[in-house]
Amino acid sequence: MKFSKMHGLGNDFVIVNALAEKKLGNLEELAKRVCHRNFGIGADGLILVLPSEEADIRMRIFNSDGSEPEMCGNGIRCFARYIYQESIVPKEVIRVETLAGIIVPRLITEGSLISGIQVDMGPPVLDPDQIPVRGYASAPVVDVPLEVDGQTLSITAVSMGNPHCVVFVPDLDAVFFDTLGPKLETHPAFPRKTNVEFVQVINNEKVKVRVWERGAGPTLACGTGACAVAVAGSLSGRTSRKVTVCLPGGDLDILWDQHDNRVYMTGPAVEVFRGEFFI
After folding, report:
1. Which of 213, 273, 269 shows the shortest CA–CA distance to 94?
2. Residue positions annotated with a catalytic role
3. Strand, coil or helix: 174
4. CB-count exposure of residue 169 (10 Å: 0-12, 13-18, 19+)
């Protein structure tokens, strides 16, 4: 199986052109093998390029534990760069079919170089039933109490095609990240589990974030998570609608446009190497 290894701010993926690679077998098991950092290539997720009847192309992504999320913000930037540079879809604006609907990345070019990718992530989902989050009747679910491990946290729930639990904290370094992350991910309030973002506000237009991703654990960046953080910050009055989200792997620029209610994410995507994996 031929592959390309790519990352968006350190959130890394193995990308496979499934238009050419036909015999991939059980995809959940393949993702576990490929993503293993000792016995495989090593990645947070496996991404497949597939044909679409609804858009230019289709993206499927599997987490390192074999689960299949609806969407991935960093992953779709890597996906867009890959299919553009491989001339699979040689357009700077690409319509991509995902489990979260049609997502539209736009490549930002300077001459022949790709300097970044902006993705129209669509409007945020704030209805508790659609996020989904249980125990809260009305939208938006902003700064509500949630009992976790004997303590009460204030959370904000947002979906960007996948569920997010945003927790604002005064000091990011003081958070019991490895304990609270998995307990929030699997909390009964989130029937499909959830991604978790711990957020420290630096100022009105800048925040610092650590991410515990559903199905992957701690990652260096999360694109949908950064979008959810910007929405949560604006809804709670902590930030403006345009914010720089500083993640361990680097920064993403997020705009929640007040005119069309859509969230726009801008950031890099980098190819690291190519190879063959024996399946």
Report:
1. 269
2. 72, 222
3. helix
4. middle
